[in-house]
Specification:
Radius of gyration: 28 Å
Strand content: under 5%
Number of helices: 21
Number of strands: 0
Order of helices and strands: HHHHHHHHHHHHHHHHHHHHH
Distance between the termini: 87 Å
Largest sheet: none
Oligomer: single chain
Length: 426
């Protein structure tokens, strides 16, 4: 049975790994890249694929289609008048020889060099799915075990993706997916470095992530990297850099049409940076924005995986941090209790982190017994957590507790020494 023009185009699209919706998006991106004023809707694509003969694309659409598939329009199933075949003529008048030197067959290069002319393992959708599952696992390892084991896992995963990019044979769609996952892995490494150090490696990973996000033109991954950069900048005392990172994150999120959840994450980072810089009015304004964004998160329809942690728990924790910075630890306590109780299962590291902050704050309000009870709970639960940030918080509690003359405090100090590998009580 003869293949209709519409079926021919649909076959090329599917061979390149596109759905109708994703193909339209790729078409628009290619038109922008080529500086061609051409658009395409899903409805029009469906007409091209279903009608016989299909409606002829206008010249701008023709140029984009030929660039995407590496084929003359006539070979995509369209009936092309002679005056519109100029592009094919420029490729070569001898269609059996010269054009074949340019394209080695429709199946070989569909979707802009679908399979490069080189040898190597074929990388397909199943490989992408396996790498994607590895990325998802990184969240679980981080939440349950902390940044140190998660970093080791991320480095192995990144090596595998990089080997696939360097030595594999894949379609342009798969190549973009691999590039995106390299960027996401760098974002993970930046966060894990923030959690467990060293800070210079975390910062380097952050810069890698931002560069990769720019190369693949993914503004939301740039936002993710900028959020982590703001945290690293605060830790390094580079408050101006943190403020600049947050400003850029807001701008990119707005340009990308991001929803309330992404904006909530940025406002939480803004509140933290302003508070650490001593700008309490700025921190208060950022918290007000965070509360507003959080109240609208139920309207979000497409939240990036990296932003899904943000919600009322994080707003409570940020509010507690504000009151602590303001010198009112007693007002911070109920917000910390709410944050600790609101964390669901699987967030072992964050539960320990938040509960340790609650213990510190209770100690500042002279609630010694309760503070030690909370810290004991942290020590009971965090045996499998490897996080430099958590260790620093444990040691900070110990330094504050050494001046407290109470049996519970002395017992907790001993346990902190054991947990952090420092031996018995000094």
């Amino acid at each position: 049975m003869a293949v209709s023009g519409g079926s021919r185009l649909a076959g090329l699209r599917k061979e390149a790994g596109y759905t109708q919706v994703s193909f339209v998006a790729a078409f628009v991106r290619e038109a922008v890249r080529l500086c061609i004023d051409a658009s395409l809707s899903v409805r029009q694509l469906r007409r091209w694929e279903s009608e016989s003969p299909p409606p002829l694309p206008h010249p701008g659409q023709q140029a984009v289609l030929e660039a995407m598939f590496g084929l003359p329009l006539a070979e995509m199933g369209f009936v092309v008048p002679s005056h519109r075949r100029t592009f094919a003529g420029r490729i070569g008048d001898d269609e059996e020889v010269r054009r074949r030197a340019f394209v080695t067959g429709s199946g070989a290069i569909a979707a802009a060099a679908i399979l490069p002319n080189r040898h190597g393992a074929r990388i397909g959708a199943s490989d992408v799915a396996a790498f994607r599952a590895g990325l998802t696992d990184l969240y679980t390892v981080d939440h349950r075990s902390g940044g140190i084991p998660a970093m080791a896992r991320a480095q192995r995963l990144e090596q595998g993706i990089t080997r696939a990019l360097s030595g594999g044979v894949y379609t342009s769609r798969v190549g973009r997916d691999l590039h995106t996952m390299v960027c996401e892995t760098a974002c993970h490494r930046a966060w894990f470095g923030y959690d467990s150090g060293p800070p210079e490696e975390a910062r380097a990973a952050c810069m890698e992530a931002m560069t990769a996000a720019q190369l693949i033109d993914d503004p939301l991954l740039q936002v993710r990297a900028l959020n982590t950069l703001s945290l690293l900048s605060v830790d390094a005392g580079r408050m101006w850099e943190a403020a600049s990172a947050i400003k850029s994150a807001y701008r990119l999120a707005h340009q990308a049409g991001a929803g309330p959840t992404v904006h909530l994450v940025i406002s939480l980072r803004e509140a933290s940076a302003a508070g650490q810089a001593g700008d309490l009015s700025g921190a208060r304004r950022a918290l007000s924005r965070a509360v507003s964004y959080q109240g609208r998160t139920d309207t979000d329809t497409d939240v990036p995986r990296w932003a899904r942690f943000a919600g009322p728990v994080e707003v409570d924790y940020a509010t507690a941090a504000y009151y602590t910075t303001e010198g009112q630890p007693a007002r911070a306590v109920p917000f910390l209790r709410s944050a600790v109780s609101g964390l669901g299962g699987g967030y072992t590291r964050n539960t320990a982190w938040y509960r340790a902050r609650l213990a510190q704050t209770l100690l500042r309000t002279n609630e010694v017994e309760e503070a030690c009870h909370e810290m004991t709970g942290v020590l009971d639960a965090c045996g499998g957590v490897s996080s430099a940030r958590l260790r620093r918080r444990l040691r900070a509690f110990e330094r504050a507790a050494v001046s407290v003359d109470a049996p519970a405090a002395r017992e907790v100090i001993d346990r902190i020494h054991t947990a952090t590998g420092e031996g018995g009580r000094r």
